[in-house]
Amino acid sequence: MKLQSQLNAAFTTLLLIIMAVTGYVIYSMILDMLIQDEQRQLGQKGDILVDVLNEQYGTRLDLQEFSNFLQDQDLQLFMYDRNQDTVFFSTMSSVVANGFFQSNDFSDENENLWEYQNDKYVTSRIMVYPESTGLELILLTPMNDLQIVQQNFFLRLLVVFLFGGAAAVLLSYFLTNKLVTPLSQLKRQLKKIEKRQFDDIERIKATGEIKEVEQSVYDMAQELQRYMNSQQTFFQNASHELKTPLMTIQGYAEGIKDKIFDEKDEEKGLEVMVSEVKRLKMIINEMILLAKLDSEANAYQPEHIDVSLLIDQVVDRALPLINEKDIVLGSKVDSDINLVADKEKLLRALLNLTFNGIRHAKSQVNIITYRKDRLITIRIEDDGDGIPEELIPHIFHRFVKGKNGETGLGLAIARAIIEQSGGKISVGKSELGGASFEITFTSKLQN
């Protein structure tokens, strides 16, 4: 069953239940209200009759004349003598009056409903003054009359419910159609994503949570397209990076085999082959490492790290390279900064960024670490030529190399490690004039 049909069925079922409960409650309340209203009206009529009795028929001997007066009023009533527990007078026949007297307790003032021959009657009692007379006027109305009014009212209410229910169902169909239509359109867009038709994806007009889902799907499609493009670029770059040393090795190997090199060139060729094999091995090892960083969560072993000691290790391991390049490596670290991450991998990331800065620096590389509020920041900057603007959006992609770059995987590895450690990395222009790589860790990683 489609979602729209399910929603309509659920709404209709709920509406029927609510209408049934409401109808039952109203049906019961109507009868109670009619009984109360009828008792009120009977009480008003009884008060009028008692006033007439008191004004015009002041003595008990005058009650016979009052009885004749009551007989002309077309009322169902009893004149009950409470002192003697007898019916003094009734506008009904003696058989009916006796039947009522036998079936009901006239002395019970709390009984408002009487029964006679399977019929019920609403009663109202009015004392005749003075109370010493012990006379009560008891007026009756058949419940059948009230039930007819109740049924007529309920039939009208049922008609209102039917028309209102039909209008509610139509409105439900319209609203669910408006709700489900964006989902159906979203389903078609997901089919396009499944078929990798990213250029054919269309935006959907929606509101609320559906709009948020639509935006998430659109962002996912953009990310998938970017990922697939980057993967394609990766394989192209990888094949190029691997092909170059292989062709060099193949060329020298065939030349040595065919004896076309003299002894000096042959030795040079072997050195080049060894150098290219080392370069090839380094590229493959970094590709394997990057694949593990992206796919194996258990490759990370988090632990508490003293950032000051970590930066000291970076400086110590970079010392041979800065001496070779005649570069000044400065470090400034605030005290008592700790975070939780895989120490060896985070060290690898910081070394990659530091070595990158040393290769491109003219004379100065700085490592600055500080904590502001609940944010830890590590910034590595140099005074080199900086990163070209067109290269910045792609600098962390695989095999993207700037000037003097090596494998094009170092920055990609650094980003993977930092992001898997819960941090963020960005690149910009440093105050020294070169590139500035800034790493931030949120308070969740603090001690």
Automatic annotation (TrEMBL):
Top-rank lineage group of the source organism: Bacteria
Record-annotated membrane-spanning stretches: 12-35, 153-175
Catalyzed chemical reaction(s): ATP + protein L-histidine = ADP + protein N-phospho-L-histidine
Enzyme class: transferase
InterPro entries: HAMP_dom, HATPase_C_sf, HATPase_dom, His_kinase_dom, HisK_dim/P_dom, HisK_dim/P_sf, HssS/ArlS-like, Sig_transdc_His_kin-like_C
One Gene Ontology term of the molecular function aspect: phosphorelay sensor kinase activity
Record-annotated HAMP domain positions: 177-229
Main location: membrane
Membrane-topology descriptor: Multi-pass membrane protein
Annotated ranges, domain Histidine kinase: 237-445
GO CC annotation terms, alphabetical: plasma membrane
PROSITE patterns documented for this protein: HAMP (PS50885), HIS_KIN (PS50109)
EC number: 2.7.13.3
Pfam family, one: HisKA
Subcellular location: Cell membrane
Keywords of this entry: ATP-binding, Cell membrane, Kinase, Membrane, Nucleotide-binding, Phosphoprotein, Transferase, Transmembrane, Transmembrane helix, Two-component regulatory system
Protein name as annotated: histidine kinase
Lineage, highest ranks first: Bacteria, Bacillati, Bacillota, Bacilli, Bacillales
